[in-house]
Design goal:
The protein is an alpha+beta fold and 126 residues long. It has four helices and six strands; from the N terminus they run βαβββαββαα. It has helices at 14-25, 66-72, 102-110, 114-125; strands spanning 7-10, 30-33, 47-49, 52-53, 86-91, 94-98. A hairpin with a 2-residue loop joins β5 and β6. α3 packs antiparallel against α4. The longest helix has 12 residues, at 14-25. The chain is elongated, with a radius of gyration of 21 Å. The mean pLDDT is 83.
């Protein structure tokens, strides 16, 4: 008698989904177990209070290594960089929102610290 599954993947986050897809593509019978209500791990948009949802991480698929994209036949993935990429509350209703554009980010930083703004370009170049 054979087992109903060749592999059991525990966790339906991004890594679990990639593992399950890779195994399935290789012809394995896979059971994917996820304790949450939906798969996706940190790429999901959880509801943290009734009516309030927030993305804990960017929904950017650009981090997926090219060999995995090729192996799974994932097409149409594109790197999406939000602008601003980071927003941090400063208090008093103010925010520090940094653009991926080094010059624009430095201008934003300059309002708070000219010294840090001058260092931003060299800092991000390393």
């Amino acid at each position: 008698m054979s087992a109903p599954f060749d592999a059991i993947v525990i966790g339906g986050g991004v890594n679990g989904l990639v593992a399950a897809a890779t195994l399935g593509k290789a012809g394995r019978r896979v059971l994917l177990l996820e304790r949450g209500g939906e798969p996706g791990g940190q790429c999901r948009t959880p509801e943290f209070a009734p009516g309030f949802r927030a993305d804990p991480l960017s929904r950017d698929a650009g981090w997926v290594p090219p060999p995995i994209v090729r192996e799974l036949g994932l097409t149409g993935l594109e790197l999406v960089t939000p602008d601003p990429t980071v927003s941090v509350p400063l208090g008093g209703g103010e925010w520090l929102s940094l653009s991926p554009d080094v010059g624009r980010a430095a201008e934003t930083i300059r309002r708070h610290s000219p010294r840090d703004a001058a260092a931003w370009g060299p800092f991000t170049a390393t």
